[in-house]
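Each field is set out as follows.
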Amino acid sequence: MPPTARSILHVDMDAYYASVEQRDDPGLRGKPVVVGGGTNRGVVAAASYEARTFGIRSAMPMAEAIRRCPELCRVKPRMSHYKSVSRQVFAIFREFTPAVEGLSLDEAFLDVTASVTLFGAPEEIAMAIKQRILDETRLTASVGVAENKLVAKIASDLDKPDALTVVWPEDYEARLDPLPVSVIPGIGRKTLTRLSAAGIGTVRDLRMANDRVLEPIFGRFTRKTRDRASGHDARPVVPSRAEKSISAEETYDRDLTSREQMNRELLRLSERTASRLRKAGLAAGTVHIKIRQSDFRTYTRQRSISPPANGTDQLYAVARALLQAWLGRNPAAKIRLLGVGGSNLAPAEQADLFAAVPDQPDAPIDQAVDEIRDRFGSASVGRARTLDGQ
């Protein structure tokens, strides 16, 4: 590796949510486990490697997962616990480099270019990180080591689980060329179909294809796509990524058919989203809702608000207006999923500077709810209007 080259790691925890559950409950070890909705109406959030042997994957409908494996062990998600373990893992990353770009709770890029003088070669740093994670959390991680983010991410997935895979430029043709073209980020199902029709199935096929074949598929992104197939990627590791949106959604065991049910669930979701915004010290300049009908058709609606807000009643008022407007055009709708979110986020302190009224009417209630939940858990308290029968 040239001395001027970058050294990038992509660390990906192995079957993270499911592995945490198997670690915490010995009775689940060695069994097919999925984390997700507790009913057949939900979807799989994560699948253990034992479950994956049945073809079960994340985002699969739970009913399909159970059809494939009737003995499947289902576990409800414990997001606060997964976040706590994630903080342990990310603290380990930052002991080796400050250049950590988190992609999710269980995945991150690390630029260790400047760390080699302290901790040794990139491969040695990767091994040390894997060992620290195992020692401190009893979980395994797979790490890809490369000159750039693209190849590091591909490498981390080549030999999962518990893998350490190094792919330097001199190895690109041998390691990348035989891979299916689907490993290139941004190539989705429809594009794969068009590539297949054009006789392109591997990374090498894509790298060697001429513009006449690729331009009808990728248009102005043709050159960028070929660069990726050649292993080229100049993107830096960005240590701080601003939160773009915060939301909450839920898939229901039974379709919501009455406006009373819908409004009650909308308030519950608004409360969860508002609480998350306040905990992050943020306020939303746009409120959006997500609606999925029983036939799986999905809609989103949004509205800007000024000043940005993070109060439950403020978010609920906008979300309810958006829902009522949508129901006006879909009066007989049966709703399978509802979601409420906030985007165009700003620091809450900044939002307060522009507020016409310093303290919103619901602020004391929200503060009290937050304090109780911090002490006793998220299910310990809720507004009466969110309770069944209210």
Summary: The chain is about 40% helix and 20% strand. The radius of gyration is 24 Å. The chain has a mean pLDDT of 87.
